[in-house]
Amino acid sequence: MLPIGGHVIAALMKLLNAADNTLEQLHPESELISTLAQTQRLNTQYIAIIGSTEELLVNLGDTNKGQWTKILTFIIQR
After folding, report:
1. Cβ neighbours of residue 74 closer than 8 Å, sequence gap 6 or more
2. Is 64 helix (H, G, I), strand (E, B) or coil?
3. Residue 59 in contact with residue 65, Cβ under 8 Å?
4. Which of 12, 32, 36, 42 has its CA 20 to 30 A from that of 68?
5. Which residues contact 25 (CB under 8 A, 6 or more apart)?
6. How far apart, in whole angstroms, are the C-alpha atoms of residue 60 and residue 72?
7. Concatenated DSSP letters for 29-53?
8. What is the model's pLDDT at position 64?
9. DSSP of 54-72, one letter per residue?
10. pLDDT tens, 38-69?
């Protein structure tokens, strides 16, 4: 078992705290939601383009090769 340094624990705590803050902002009674609810509505049109990238997955072959080698081989073959 490898000892975990204090800096690793601190980084994980910072990440957890950031996720917690984000969840708190999504609460219906949060300051952020209240501010958004009070803003004037704008007549801004937008378009959302959505889709799946599952079909874009590429089998890069041999798992013993490095990532960059696999990617470059794929690009050269194309």
Report:
1. 58, 60
2. coil
3. no
4. 12
5. 31, 32, 33
6. 10
7. TSHHHHHHHHSPP------------
8. 65
9. GGG------TTS-HHHHHH
10. 888 778 888 888 888 777 666 656 666 677 77
Residue in the block written with tokens 């705290």:
17
CA distance 78 to 71: 11
The per-residue pLDDT for 1 is 46
Rounded CA separation 78/74 (Å): 6
Joined tokens for residue 48: 């959302």
pTM (predicted TM-score): 0.33
Closest CA to 19 of 29, 11, 8, 28: 11
Tokens describing residue 36: 């958004």
In which element (H, E) is residue 13 found? helix 6-25
| CA atoms of 38 and 28, how far apart (whole Å) | 13
